[in-house]
From TrEMBL:
Belongs to the TfdA dioxygenase family. GO terms for molecular function: dioxygenase activity. It comes from the Bacteria. Keywords: Dioxygenase, Iron, Metal-binding, Oxidoreductase. The keyword Oxidoreductase applies. The keyword Zinc does not apply. Residues 21-295 form the TauD/TfdA-like domain. This is TauD/TfdA family dioxygenase. The lineage of its organism: Bacteria, Pseudomonadati, Pseudomonadota, Alphaproteobacteria, Sphingomonadales. InterPro entries: AtsK-like, TauD-like_sf, TauD/TfdA-like.
Length: 320
């Protein structure tokens, strides 16, 4: 039982590809240790030529830890052997929000973000597989916060060292404060169910550090332009201008050091949610795209709700 591990891309400082993994091998302790060590070092893994099934996705997910239910209750669940944390991300033809970006009309577009920024607890990781792939587009982009920190303008880093960012559960394109590119046009708003809106209104704002330090000593620049409300203590014009600078720098550096994954049915991908940002390119609204995702439980212990709001862990111990 041998794994084949190679770099994701020789031009990037993060990510690996692993091939040779079977469902049976996910129960082998030595294999599990090897995979987790690769994940901790690389930040993301593309598993190639794996069995395209819920059973394989669950077996692989459990290599990294217990699963967690997604905090947004209205997101569709997948009935996968009674296990928690399996959700379906479906973009049906001619449904959902449609935007024009980079001169193209696409659905299911998302800017750079990390998952659950609107929550006090950050899940450890996510694992994705493509159940239905579009003929073109539908790429998932990844951007490493360790690489971002190293490349970020020094003067801008000095201004945000120690800063904390406010986030809220808001997926409306029209009311994003910082994430939308200047040329973005909303052609059709994203439909939001009443349950989603009710949960969003009831949640306090979440707070996460702009920069944090791993146990390994590496600094991580971890800012989600999507769903961001501003900088704690600086919800004013100067703070907004600073956050706009941060977003511009992220987008400019992303052009140099991001990875964009074109999906195959026999691939699964895991990313470190405490370290990576991700984005979705969107696709032709006439086509359907279906992704299955599992959420790996965990928390880095640095998030909290504003004014010590009700719910979740606040500044508790980390598992990294």
């Amino acid at each position: 039982m041998t794994l084949h591990i190679r770099p994701l891309d020789d031009k990037l400082d993060f990510g690996v590809r692993i091939s040779g993994l079977t469902r049976e091998m996910t129960g082998d302790e030595a294999i599990r240790t090897q995979i987790n060590a690769a994940f901790e070092q690389a930040g993301m893994i593309v598993f190639e030529n794996v069995e395209p099934s819920n059973a394989m996705q669950l077996a692989l997910s459990n290599v990294f830890g217990p699963l967690k239910e997604h905090p947004v209750k209205s997101i569709a669940r997948v009935d996968a052997e009674g296990m928690p944390g399996v959700i379906e991300l479906r973009s049906s033809p001619d449904s959902g929000g449609i935007v024009e970006v980079n001169g193209k009309q696409v659905s299911h577009w998302l800017p750079w973000h990390f998952d659950h920024c609107y929550n006090d607890e950050l899940n450890r990781a996510g694992i994705l597989r493509a159940a239905k792939i579009t003929p073109a587009g539908g790429l998932t982009g990844f951007l490493d916060g360790i690489s971002l920190y190293k490349l970020f303008p020094a003067d801008l880093l000095a201004r945000i060292e120690g800063a904390e960012i406010l986030y809220t559960l808001n997926s409306h394109y029209e009311t994003q404060r910082f994430s939308n590119p200047p040329d973005l046009k909303v052609l059709r708003s994203k439909p939001m169910g009443k349950d989603f809106e009710a949960q969003a209104r009831a949640m306090p704002r979440a707070i996460h550090p702009a920069i944090w330090t791993r146990v390994s000593g590496e600094k991580v620049l971890h800012v989600s332009p999507y769903m961001a409300e501003g900088i704690v203590g600086h919800e004013d014009s100067a703070g907004d201008a600073l956050f706009a600078e941060i977003t511009r720098a992220i987008n400019e550096l992303a052009a140099q050091c991001s990875y964009h994954h074109a999906w195959k049915p026999t691939e699964m991908l895991i990313w470190d949610n405490w370290r990576m940002l991700h984005a979705v390119s969107g696709h032709d609204p006439a086509h359907e795209r279906i992704m299955y995702r599992t959420t790996i439980k965990g928390d880095y212990g640095l998030g909290r709700f504003e004014n010590r709001g009700v719910g979740g862990r606040i500044l508790q111990d980390t598992i990294i």
